[in-house]
Amino acid sequence: MRKAHFLGTKIRALRKRNNLTLEDLSVRCVQFDAENAPSVSYLSMIENGKRVPSEALMATIAAIFQKDINWFFDETLEAEPIAVAPKSTGIDGMPLEPGFLFSGEQLQIAIPELLSQTGTTGTQFAHLLIRAHQETRQNRFPDLERAAESIGRKVFPLTLDDLLGMSKRAGLRIRWFDRAASRDRRGAADSMNTLLRSFYEAPNVLWINRKLEKVPQRLKYDLANHLGHRLLHDGDGARAAQVSGDRTQARHPEAESPQLDAKDILYAWRDFECSYFAAALLAPKTPFRQFLARHRYSIDSGKRAELSPGLTMRRMTSVSPYPHWHYFDAYPPGNLRAVYRGNGIPLPWGNMRMVSDPCQHWAVFKMLNAADGSPSAQISVLRSGDDKRLYCCESVRARDAAGNTHVMCAGIDLAPALIAQGIDPVETTNAIEHSCNKSGGVGAIPVTARRQLEAIGKILNIGWIADGAARVASIICPRSRNCPRDKHCLGKVTTRRKTGQDEMRAQIMQAAKD
């Protein structure tokens, strides 16, 4: 302890490197050793050099950050400042140049025409805009968090009686209706159940399907969702109904125009606001962050608080100190009904249209037809051209309120976490990819890489990273026709000869040289 001159500085640097607050670190210490866990104030005094931790506490801190305990007492600071992982690896946009073609006036004319010609609905376009906004903000919306906390007082978990009491105090009247799920008969392969769960009648009537009484977690969500509309928008009723299994993502009944309608954007944005509000009310940021930390981000942990897996996984992307997340919600045969890509993962097959060359090795798609629906983790090397990325995700299969099977998947980009620990992510990714290629595209993770991933899992406190590292990894890609595996997953692929203008120009110039 006589060599503890830089101890506090090193602990603070490690904590900030991993985006942890003092409160987060205190919770992590409780996980390791509840008896010797420090308070937030005591940790602050340690970092400021006013207290020296016990040997037991030092062992706990060393385990949390996966450091040798002697590293804290070597009386040296790193020559270079500790690098903090990049805050965003989101999707890159394109420059809107020349500027006169992208003026507001031009876009007002061009966008509706584009949507009409491509068959894209106004609602789908609105969802794309909102998703881009989410990814730019890394799914952080503090104003909606504060609005939820003002009524929920950060109480966690909330009971159904709590939600009913809040609704009553907000002046909401609840009326019940009975309506079974209806079957979409447009095709045997694409048929889907649709259930009207609830809708809002201005100024203060909330209609709820009695089917939700049997599923408290869904009833709580719909109550919180419409409560958000009452508080955020004064209950004016300008929003869409809550429906499960609506494969068309249809317009609001009042907006039947084939052209883009301003209501499409308004209703989609309000749906997002109310949904985010509901999640923040049912899982307030600070207590839910601590809850996830105690359960190492287990997908099933939400059941303890009557939260659905979907809400639990979506909320992880907002409250985790690690910002590099993605989330998918897939319905058969491969339509993505919800997408969030705060870590920049390319969009896989099957969003608003079907394509003929899906990469079936994505975890979210594999589980659609898997025999076992329990949560499953996967380490993936994603190749898109020369770009290589390393991800870990966990997927779970469930049924929505209408009885339709779907798969939800939450995952993280591992590269920023490796960089933060001084590990070269390219070297680790190449080693895993090489092992996979030796086995046809799916292979065991090399020992060194597996140990690195296990350490990252402990530092980030995400249990399913170690689960994925203990299994085989897989090479995935956005499109199978561009499969990057040494052994192409579709067999031999014939590349069609180019016949475009560039090819003709090259032929003419070559002939002139000859």
Question: What do these coordinates show?
Answer:
With 514 residues, the chain is α+β, with helices and mostly antiparallel strands. The protein folds into 3 domains: 67 residues, 434 Repressor (Amino-terminal Domain) (Orthogonal Bundle); 164 residues, no CATH class; 161 residues, Beta-Lactamase (2-Layer Sandwich). The chain is 40% helix and 15% strand. The chain is built from 18 helices and 12 strands. The strands form 2 sheets. A 7-stranded mixed β-sheet has the order 7-6-10-9-8-12-11. Strands 1, 2, 3, 4 and 5 form a 5-stranded mixed β-sheet that branches. A hairpin with a 3-residue loop joins strand 6 and strand 7. The longest helix is centred in the middle third of the chain and has 21 residues. The radius of gyration is 26 Å and the shape is globular. About 3% of the residues have low confidence.
Which keywords apply here?
single chain, 514 residues, 434 Repressor (Amino-terminal Domain), Beta-Lactamase, 3 domains, 7-stranded mixed β-sheet, 5-stranded mixed β-sheet, 18 helices
